Amino acid sequence: MTKRASWPSPLNIFFLLERLKSMARHIIQCPSCNHEIELYQNPLPTVDIIIEIESGGIVLVKRKNPPYGWALPGGFVDYGESLEEAAIREAKEETDLDVKLNKQLHTYSDPKRDPRHHSISTVYIAKAKGEPQAKDDAIEIGIFNESNLPEKIAFDHRSILDDYFKRNTLAL
Amino acid sequence: MTKRASWPSPLNIFFLLERLKSMARHIIQCPSCNHEIELYQNPLPTVDIIIEIESGGIVLVKRKNPPYGWALPGGFVDYGESLEEAAIREAKEETDLDVKLNKQLHTYSDPKRDPRHHSISTVYIAKAKGEPQAKDDAIEIGIFNESNLPEKIAFDHRSILDDYFKRNTLAL
C-alpha cells in the first residue's frame, strides 16, 4: 500500500501558526525582579567566506558544536562592523588565514537555513596563501574542491557551494 | 594661513573609543522595576528596492520622517521572513506596486550609512507595471532616471544608485 500525501490537520496548522508567531518573539527575564520582557527580534546578520587557496581548493571547517558537519568559515557581524571587516576577522579567527576579499557572492536569508535561529548570511569569495589551521569552533580543517566535498555539510552551505561552483563554471 | 591636518588629541581619542564601545551596547529599562538591562545588539537587516517601471525610470519616495530627502523604497526585515519576501512586502507598503524581483544588486553595511543605527541593506532590482502611490512614510513619490535624480537623497542611496546605473551602463 502506498502512502498518499495529505493536507495537515487543522490542529497541526494551529500549532504551526503558533510556532511561526513565537519565532518573532524573544522573551527575556529581568535579572533584578524576574519580570518577563518581550523584545522585538530581528534576523541576525552573519558572514560566510569561500576561501580560495592559492595552491587550489577551498577551505571548510568541521564543526565542534551542533549543527555538526563541515561548514564554510563564518560568524556573526558585530554592531558597528562592516560585512567586509567581519568576513576578514572571522576568516582569521577560524582558519588563521589572512584573506583578501574578492567579491560578494550573494546574501542568503531562508529562515530555515540555520536550525538555531533566523540568520542572514552574506557570502564572500576570498583568496589566501598558506596553510589553514583549525581554531576556535573547529575540530578539523580541510581543503576541498567540487569533486571531493565532504558528505555532511551543515546549514545551507552545500547549496551555497553549488551556487559558487556553478558560477565559476558559467564564467569559463 | 593654511590649516594643517593634525592628530586628534588623546582626549578626543578617548571619547571616540567610548562612543564606539557604546555603539555595541543597547540598554533597556525593565518596565516593572526600572532596572537597567544591557543587551547584546546586532546590526539590523533591511532591504531596499530599485523598482524599474515598465514605461521607464525608477521609483523614489520623499521621506516624511528624518533623515529627510528622497530614498529608495525599503524597510526592516522581519524575523522569520526572507529578504525576498521583505522586499516584495516593503515595495507594496511604500509604493502600492506589485513588484517582480529580478536580482540582488549588493548588500551594503557601512555602520555610518544610516545616522540612526547600524543597518545592513540588501538591495534588489525589481520590475513593476502601473502608477506608484505614496503610502505610509512618504509625502511624495516620483519616477526618476539617471539624468534627473533629486538633489537631496537620504542614507547611502545615491551611492547605491551610482552602483546600479554604472552596472547597467557596463552591461550594455
Description:
2 copies of one chain form a homodimer. With 172 residues, chain A is an alpha+beta fold. Chain A is built from 3 helices and 9 strands, in the order αββββββαβββα. In chain A, the strands form 3 sheets. The first copy, chain A, has a 4-stranded mixed beta sheet with strand order 6-3-8-7, with helices on both faces. The longest helix of chain A is centred in the C-terminal third of the chain and has 15 residues, at 157-171. The radius of gyration of chain A is 19 Å and the shape is globular. Chain A starts with 9 loop residues before the first helix and ends with a helix. The model of chain A has no long low-confidence stretch (mean pLDDT 89). Chains A and B meet through strand 7 of A and strand 7 of B.
Key features of this structure:
172 residues; alpha+beta; homodimer; 24% helix; 33% strand
